């Protein structure tokens, strides 16, 4: 297993479910990716990096033409990071360390280990910013979330969804809180933000993205996006353009 690597991947590229005995960081220097485990899906736009600890079955899907960077964290070093899959914000220092680690040939012995130590130190000091969409176990709730996944932009109340799957609004509302740890409205909003990130990464306008993802007007979409992602859609797209402009050529494809 290589310590690092990277490559440009086409839109929609999918790595099927697999696991590793080491930890794995995947960073989209340009583009975006989604990491899915049994616990749900984590989305990482170009200002975040995904973390998957050893032993977790997971898959990746890439959105937009993605400059994907892979950094392997040996199992003996993984205790320094959280013990569950997550997404972390990428500081300027962390970005440069990830890029250098994945596109720079090791000239001096130990150089990669020192860079990797910088990455671990930065992640240990960085709060999680998960953009996490948990998935249910209950069959009734899963039927509802499947409908929402299929049509994230369609506006249906929980009562209407309940009629479709044969469960009451009260039961479904309780299940959203007990199984997923959030309200129906919050879960659907995070789902829509996931889709919005994909649209924005692909170059769709903020107004078109808002409409397609279920918001009645761009301002309410901008408010929701900013609250969850931490920046406006316009700023996110500007940073994507900057990332593509300054992203350096990388070596072998991530895997």
From TrEMBL:
MF term (GO), any: sequence-specific DNA binding
Name the record gives this protein: HTH-type transcriptional regulator RipA
Keywords: DNA-binding, Repressor, Transcription, Transcription regulation
UniProt cross-references to SUPFAM superfamilies, sorted A to Z: Homeodomain-like, RmlC-like cupins
Ranges for domain HTH araC/xylS-type: 142-239
Pfam families attached to this UniProt entry: HTH_18
InterPro entries: Homeodomain-like_sf (IPR009057), HTH_AraC (IPR018060), RmlC_Cupin_sf (IPR011051)
């Amino acid at each position: 297993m290589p310590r690092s690597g990277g490559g440009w991947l086409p839109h929609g590229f999918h790595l099927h479910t697999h696991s590793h005995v080491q930890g794995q960081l995947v960073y989209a220097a340009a583009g975006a990716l989604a990491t899915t485990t049994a616990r749900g899906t984590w989305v990482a736009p170009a200002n975040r990096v995904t973390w998957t600890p050893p032993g977790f079955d997971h898959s990746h899907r890439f959105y937009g033409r993605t400059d994907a960077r892979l950094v392997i964290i040996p199992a003996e070093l993984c205790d320094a990071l959280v013990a569950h899959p997550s997404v972390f914000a990428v500081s300027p220092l962390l970005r440069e360390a990830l890029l250098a680690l994945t596109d720079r040939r090791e000239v001096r012995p130990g150089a990669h280990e020192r860079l990797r130590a910088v990455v671990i130190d930065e992640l240990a000091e960085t709060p999680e910013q998960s953009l996490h969409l948990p998935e249910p176990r209950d069959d009734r709730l899963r039927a509802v979330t499947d409908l929402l996944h299929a049509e994230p932009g369609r506006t249906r109340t929980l009562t209407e969804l309940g009629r479709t799957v044969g469960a009451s609004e009260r039961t479904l509302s309780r299940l959203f809180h007990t199984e997923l740890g959030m309200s129906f409205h919050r879960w659907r909003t995070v789902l829509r933000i996931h889709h919005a990130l994909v649209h924005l990464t692909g170059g769709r306008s903020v107004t078109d993205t808002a409409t397609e993802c279920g918001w009645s007007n761009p301002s309410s979409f901008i408010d929701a996006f900013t609250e969850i992602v931490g920046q406006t859609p316009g700023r996110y797209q500007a940073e994507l353009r900057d990332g593509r402009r300054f992203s350096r050529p990388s070596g072998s494809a991530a895997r």
